[in-house]
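CORE FACILITY INTAKE
Project code: CF-77B
Contact: R.S. (postdoc)
Sample description: multi-component assembly, two entities in total
Requested service: structural model of the whole complex
Turnaround: standard
Below are the sequence entries exactly as provided by the requester. Do not edit them.
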Amino acid sequence: MHTSKHTSSLPAHRYTLVVDLDRCTGCGACGTACAVENNIPPAAEKATERTGTVWMRVHEAAAAGDGPATFVPIPCQQCDNPPCVDVCPQRAIEYDPRTGIVAQIPVRCLGCRYCMVACPYHTRSFNWWTPEWPEGMKATLNPDVSIRTRGVVEKCNFCVQRLQAARAKASAAGQAEIDPADYVPACVEACPSRALSFGDAADEKGEVARLAEDPESFRLLAGLGTGPKVLYRSSDPAARERLSRTGVTRG
Amino acid sequence: MKLELSRRDLFLAGGGAVAGIALSPVPWKLLDDLSIWTQQPPTPTPRPAGPLAFRFTSCALCPASCGLKARCFGAQPVGFAAVPGHPASDGGLCPLGLTAHHLAKHPLRATHPERVSGGKRERIDRADAVAALSAALAACGREKRTFAVVDGRPGRTLSRTYRALAAATGGLYVTPPAAGAALSLETLAKRFDGGALALGVDFSKARRVVSFGTPVLTDAGTPGLLARLRAESRRRPAAERIEVIQVEATRGRSAALADRYIPIAPGTEAAFALGLAHVLLDEKLADAAFLDARTTGLADFAALAARFAPALVEQKTGAQAGVVTALARDLATNRPALVLGGDPAAAPLSGEAEAAIAALNLLLGAPFAALPVRGDAPRATDGDAKLAAATSLDALPDGSVGLLLLDATVAEGLVPWARLERALASDALVVSLSPFRAGLGEKATLLIPGPAPLEESIELDGPVDAPFATFAFAPALLSPPKNLVPGEEILREATAAAGLSLPAPAPGSRADALLAARRGRLFDPAAATFVATGDVADTNALGELFARGACWVDDATPEPKGRFALLRDGEAARLLEAALGAPSSVPALPASLPREALSAAPPSLLLTKLTRETALFTPPAAAATTAARA
């Protein structure tokens, strides 16, 4: 199995997203909430499914036989052995050992897109166009997230700005640790069927740690050894086997 | 002296040069400079004025009336989240609601009155717009032309004004037809002989949900509720699990997610339902106690259902006889089971199909269990004002309407423009109060825009298919542009100019009515607590609660006495004819965002990402139909 320096010491926190595929209806609320929270612009006229900027993509996985369809939300998998980090010549991607979050740093990004090639989950977008919002709509943007200029690679960062805000709040209150309720990514907050759960897997008593140990939980492309911190859960063994082996290809 | 350079010397010099350069700071400085030059300067996001605050309201875009928690800087919301524990939405929120704060700045937003003249749309003064409306109103009385007003949200204070206006002009007050599960509930309730009855849906009490086209797992009722309940039940013992069975001609999104999808030929829903009834009665699987105590006309209905043996149903619908039999047995074994009818927007079921579905619910004993009786939120009295009664869309005679007034909340998915257009006279004036040049607002020849969603407080009766009644005054989060006034004010101005008189506002407010009824509880979203309505001091205190986004929730309603008719007089023949008729044409599959068809506002531009950058919402042409199988 592939190992790298990143797994040599597991982080103090392991922020983990668990997606219950039994609950997901593919409504797209997670992707919408992600776009609102992270100031992802409306699609340019020329955008297509392959060239648009989307941080949270929802795929419909083909059903086996006549069985029910499975919708699979796919954000950045926040790997513990992220293949994208090592290939970036600009060090525009950093693995934070304190949280396990793989952060994309747009101001450093050269736009060479090596990371997009290296990512086996195709969860990164290259923003081909200058972001444009209708006049007046800029007032509705989230002031905690800067607008990326065109020509950089973007991806989910577990709404790390919410983590920073939670840290600031905890610091102001003199607390050493943040309140878990203060750090919830936008997609998790928005999911109407509560298919998404988020938390610190290092907290052994937490719900996410329990879900991570659930026999119905699995990782996409588990054989690659990238160690994703996005876990999926399904009561359908065939779906588990298929997705953990082949993943969901884009497009 | 001759200088001799060997190849070895060249290699040594070259290697030394490379090593020297590598050891010097030059390449690293160049790489560093390159990275600095190419670094993209961040563009700071404009920060709206004002401190960060969380405010609460309710989403008015569709009847689900979900609670909204708005993250605001000053008065400007920059993001929404659902309200955990909210009684109307149970913590759900759909993509439309998540982007409601974009709508005030939507490119299709109209902030000035517009008139279509000579095929061109032109901006006009508000005074001119009101004068045009008032002239048309006066002409209705003078020239005996029909005035019709379509109200998307009956029951509001503004609705009373519409009704008064219709009465003053001898016109019609039109409300949208019931849709989706609400249509099935209405059909069933009309069969009750014990007085007016309102039924709701309690998915948490059901073990089987059969849907004849209503997208119960995606668009119907509270967002995500049934999907969540079903997923939670999957981890319980088999006897406690909820299963969803979708019976329809096209494999839409809800059908794709259902535990079982049974394709049938289009327009054969009545035959399929009667086939299920046949098996239930033939094998004595129906709820005999409920039928004895709460229904009439069993013998006639049994005679009708006896004609629909599974073999005939297979012939008519294309669904295998074994599938029909197995489903009927499964429903009987796993009660409470409920059956819901037509699609909310694309192709509502026929009255006969809804009648067969209502009978099926009675055979399964669904009323008062998974289909509980619910009350209505108390309303203010109408006083002695002369008000027009609500009429259905079908009551509009073709080519008769000279002035059509469209309320801002009329969703084109529920009130199709084609149907309205048929009712218009050749020179009719169509006036819309929509704040958008989209949907029915785009069809208007005179657009007098009012406040956009979130710019105006709106009275929200909760979804009619919820198990209990709810009510909220969704407070406004934004201020409308200065030149825009609410529809009520425009109507009063135009009516006065036309020489017509509207009655004074109702003597009591809705808040007074709620307090006087002394029932139910109020949910305070900020504290996530309930307070009994009886404990609220007065109307002012109640108003303060509603201004904070509170939601009123009704108490449980006791079962009324009375019986349901399995068949109405003469209905058997119509049902038989419809069920034995030929399949209809293939219905179109709506390829819209969740609840888009139920909203009068255009979707935010951000939501185009859902349709353009994902394969989630496939166009109708890509929908797999089962016509061939039938």
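Facility notes:
- The mean pLDDT of chain B is 89.
- Chain B touches chain A through 66 residues (CB under 8 Å).
Invoice: internal transfer
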